[in-house]
Amino acid sequence: MILVTGGAGFIGANFVLDWRERCDEPVVNLDKLTYAGNLGNLAALKGDAKHVFVHGDIGDRALVESLLATHRPRAIINFAAESHVDRSIHGPAAFIETNVVGTFSLLEAARAYWAALPEVERARFRFVQISTDEVYGSLAPGAPSFAETCAYEPNSPYSASKASSDHLVRAYHHTYGLPTLTTNCSNNYGPRQFPEKLIPLMLHCALAGKPLPVYGDGLHVRDWLYVGDHCAAICAVIERGRPGETYNVGGNAEMANLDVVRTLCRILAAHKPGCNAEERITFVKDRLGHDRRYAIDASKIRRELGWSPRETFESGISRTVRWYLDNEAWLAAVASKEYQKWISLNYAAQAA
Ligand code: NAD
Ligand code: TYD
C-alpha cells in the first residue's frame, strides 16, 4: 500500500491512474480538493476497492497519523501543493501554508510512523517529494542545464516555497535518517491539467475562440515533460532510487513559449480543420519576476535508474490535444465561476 497526497490534481491523478493500471498495490489518496483538485480526474477508479480517497489536508497531523496507522503504507509520495506561479504572485500565503508548513507536518507524521516500524518495513519505507526545476532559478541562454548539484536560487513565491519544503525533506534525511527522495521535474503537460497553466489555458482559449495571451516577448524557455513519462520516472525512483538522493526529470524538449503555442495551434488545426487559433496569439504584459529559461540535465536518472522519456514533444502534444478534444465536458466543468474570476484577475493585471 502506498499513500499519495494531492492525487486529485493533475500529476497526482495521472500517477494514481497509472499506478492502478500498472500493479495491484492499493493506494490511499489524500487530497484537500482545492480549486485544482478534481474528483472527476479519478472517475475511472469508481468501484476500485484498492483506491481509497480521503478528503483532507496534509497539514492535519491527526488525520495523517491515523491514515498511516490504519493503512501502514510502504511509501508516501507527496504531490500536494499550491502549484501555479501566477497565483503565488497574487497570493503567496497559501503557498507557505501548504508547501512549507503542510510538508513540515507531513514529514513529522512520517518520521514518527517510520521510527516505530519493525526493522524490515523501516528499511524499505520511502518518502518521495515531488519538486520542480524552478527551485534552481533562471538560466542564461546557452548556459548548461540544471544538474542535481546546482544551487537552489528560487525567484517566485511558488519556487521559494517548494525550495523550502525540499530543504526540510533533505534535513529529515540528514538528521533523522528518514529515507527521502526528491524529484525535480520540468514543466509537465498532458491530460487533466487545470487550464491555468500554459498548454491547457491556450487550448481552452483556442477552443473558446478567445485571444491566446503570451507573456512578454514569448521567448521564455521551458523544458516540456509528458505527464505519463513523469509518472514512470516517479515509479523508478520509488523502486530503485537511493534514499537521500535527488533526481532531475526532463522531457528533452526545450522550447520557447511562442513555439509551444504555435505548435499547439498547428496540431489543433490538424484535428479541427478551420480552427484558426494561431491568428489570435496576443502578446500581453510580462509576469513579474518571470524566469527566462529552465533546462534539465536528466543524465543521472537515466544512468542510475534506466529512465528516459518515451514521448517527443510532438507525440505528447498530439495525445494531449486529442484528450482535450475528446473531453470537452471535463474542460467545461472545470471552467467554473471561480476559474473565470481568476482569469479576470490575472489577465486584467497582464493587460494593464
Ligand atoms: P495541481 O495544482 O494540479 O494539484 C495539486 C493537488 O494538491 C490538488 O488536487 C489539490 O487539491 C491538492 N492539495 C493542495 N493543497 C493541499 C493540502 N494542503 N493537502 C492535501 N492536498 C492538497 O498540481 P500538479 O501540477 O499536479 O503538481 C503536483 C506536484 O508536482 C506539485 O508539488 C508541484 O509543485 C509539482 N510540479 C508540478 C509541475 C507541473 O508542471 N505541473 C512541474 C514541476 C513540479
Ligand atoms: P506555466 O504553465 O504557468 O508554468 P511555469 O511558470 O511554472 O513555467 O507557464 C509556462 C510558461 O508560459 C511561462 O514562461 C509563463 C508562460 N505563460 C504565458 O506566456 N501565458 C500564460 O497565460 C501563462 C499561464 C503562462
Order of helices and strands: EHEEHEHHHEHEEHEEHEEHEHHHH
- What portion of residues belong to β-strands? 15-25%
Helix percent reads: 40-55%
Q: What is the CATH topology of one domain?
A: Rossmann fold
Major β-sheet strand ordering = 3-2-1-4-5-6-10
- Classified in CATH, the superfamily of one domain is NAD(P)-binding Rossmann-like Domain
Secondary structure tally: strands: 12
Q: Total helix count?
A: 13
Average pLDDT over all residues: 97
| CATH class term of one domain | Alpha Beta
The radius of gyration computed from the alpha-carbon positions, rounded to a whole number of angstroms, is: 20 Å
Between the first and last Cα atoms, what is the distance in angstroms? 50 Å
Uncertain regions spanning at least 5 consecutive residues: none
Q: Mind describing the biggest β-sheet?
A: 7 strands, parallel
Associated small molecules: nicotinamide-adenine-dinucleotide, thymidine-5'-diphosphate
What would your notes on this structure say?
With 352 residues, this protein is an alpha/beta fold. The chain has a domain at 2-191 and 225-254 and 290-311: 3-Layer(aba) Sandwich (Rossmann fold). Helices cover 46% and strands 16% of the residues. The protein starts with a strand and ends with a helix. The mean pLDDT is 97. Bound molecules: nicotinamide-adenine-dinucleotide and thymidine-5'-diphosphate. Thymidine-5'-diphosphate binds at residues 85, 134, 187, 197-198, 201, 213-215, 220, 222, 257, 287.
